[in-house]
Design a protein that fits this description.
The chain is an alpha+beta fold. The chain is 33% helix and 26% strand. It has 13 helices and 18 strands. The protein has helices spanning 4-16, 36-48, 60-68, 74-78, 82-90, 104-107, 111-128, 149-154, 159-170, 174-186, 222-227, 289-305, 334-337; strands spanning 26-32, 52-58, 93-97, 140-144, 191-197, 203-207, 214-216, 231-234, 238-241, 249-258, 265-274, 277-278, 316-322, 344-349, 363-367, 373-378, 383-388, 391-392. The strands form three sheets. The chain has an eight-stranded antiparallel sheet with strand order 12-11-10-6-5-16-17-18. A five-stranded parallel sheet has the order 2-1-3-4-8. Strands 7-9-13-14-15 form a five-stranded antiparallel sheet, covered by helices on one side. Helix 1 crosses helix 2. The chain is globular, with a radius of gyration of 20 Å. It starts with a helix and ends with a strand.
Length: 393
């Protein structure tokens, strides 16, 4: 049982991450009934800051039945709910607490329903992230983790450690956390290119010239809002960029990742890219490679159907460097994996909301092992090694 004071601390940090600026801001809060105590503390925190919360919580039973009940058709799931879309247009911020309680139920969901669900989120994302100009710049948002024993079993990690990664990793006081993130961020001042390699097969470079570095300490700053970066994940703890999308090449090796809709693991993935674009037919993996390739292809189909200005499903969208001191081990859960000290992650797809130019339904982060080496090339053509074997120099 998580200590009540820790729940309150996490709720306060989650609320702070959406930067309520005025009375009456409408905040939509969604999660699973297993996190009801946290959801209610977030709602109370929003009220204390003058906001108006709306909490929506459903159980694993509801989700599993949606997938497995033959009377519930895929076409019903696919159709966007117009009243809900209208509500989203009117809200100022939204908060999602990770669900379901037991991720395995997504493993067993019918393929047609999962694809229908993915399609149904497209019009929501248009509004939430401002994909369409009429909705720009989008809404403030926070997507946060929360531990359960069933999820710990799914990720093959002791519950006590899973809880530590999430709860302790989320509740680090700002006065301790902000200097850690700033120290890492300072090493990228005036950076032009970033070179990354490790002993597992990662070896690539990307261009970050004239792209803003974002210091993710869990606080939505005025600078981020001005940039159009209106949200983030908790636990926090990374420095990240929207790299130049059509530059860079090499290979990133990711020991473990999870597809966001099926919740199926993909192990030991090698992802080559050239001129900033993933070479999908040369990607390899030890397991579930077809899940990965089909996810990208589905994303491409949705992007084409949405008539995006330029197809960027496969282009690099993010370079991130993890620095949360509490999180020490990759488990295939992106909300914690990408924050591991000494790890690097590269995402493909969307980055428009944090300084990039790509619009896509895809944003998939691939995280290296925590033993990366980083060399930064600066605008004056000098180079400096800033990380060796996962340790800052």
């Amino acid at each position: 049982m998580i200590d009540k004071q820790k729940i309150k601390s996490c709720a306060e940090n989650i609320t702070r991450s959406i930067n309520i600026k005025k009375d009456g801001e409408f905040v939509y809060i969604k999660g699973n009934t297993f996190s009801q105590d946290l959801l209610e503390e977030i709602g109370l925190s929003v009220l204390r800051k003058g906001g108006i919360p709306h909490i929506n919580a459903t159980s694993d039973y509801y989700e599993e039945t949606t997938w497995q009940d033959d009377l519930i058709k895929a076409k019903t799931i696919e159709n966007p709910k117009l009243p809900f879309l209208e509500m989203i247009k009117k809200m100022d911020a939204y908060i999602v607490i990770e669900y379901p309680e037991n991720p395995v139920i997504r493993n067993e969901a019918p393929k047609d329903k999962l694809e229908a669900y993915q399609k149904s989120t497209a019009p929501l994302r248009d509004i939430l992230y401002g994909f369409k100009e009429e909705f720009a710049p989008g809404k403030k948002w926070c997507y946060a983790a929360w531990p359960s024993k069933k999820a710990a079993k799914f990720f093959n990690i002791k519950y006590s450690l899973f809880e530590k990664f999430i709860v302790d990793g989320m509740s680090i006081p700002a006065e301790e956390f902000t200097p850690i993130v700033k120290n890492l961020g300072d090493k990228f001042e005036n950076a032009s290119k970033v070179y990354v390699n490790d002993d597992n097969g990662t070896d690539f470079w990307v261009s970050v010239e004239d792209r803003t570095r974002i210091l993710d300490d869990g606080i939505l700053s005025e600078e981020q809002i001005a940039l159009g970066d209106l949200g983030g994940n908790l636990p926090a703890g990374e420095v990240f960029f929207a790299p130049n999308e059509t530059q860079g090449e090499g290979t990133i090796f990711c020991p473990l990742t999870k597809e966001r809709y099926t919740h199926k693991f993909v192990k030991n993935v090698e992802l080559p890219f050239k001129e900033g674009k993933l070479i999908l037919d040369k990607v390899t993996a030890d397991s579930n490679l077809e899940i990965l390739t089909e996810a990208f292809k589905k994303g491409e189909r949705i992007d084409r159907a949405n008539k995006v200005p330029e197809l960027r499903t496969y282009n690099i969208g993010e370079l991130g460097i993890g620095c949360n001191p509490v999180i020490t081990k990759a488990i295939g859960y992106i909300l914690t994996d990408e924050k591991i000290n000494g790890s690097i992650h590269v995402a493909f797809g969307f980055n428009k909301s944090f300084g990039g130019t790509s619009i896509s339904q895809v944003h998939w982060d691939f995280v290296t092992a925590p033993n990366a080496n980083i060399t930064v090339e600066y605008k004056d053509n000098s180079k400096k090694i800033i990380m060796e074997n996962g340790k800052l120099v």
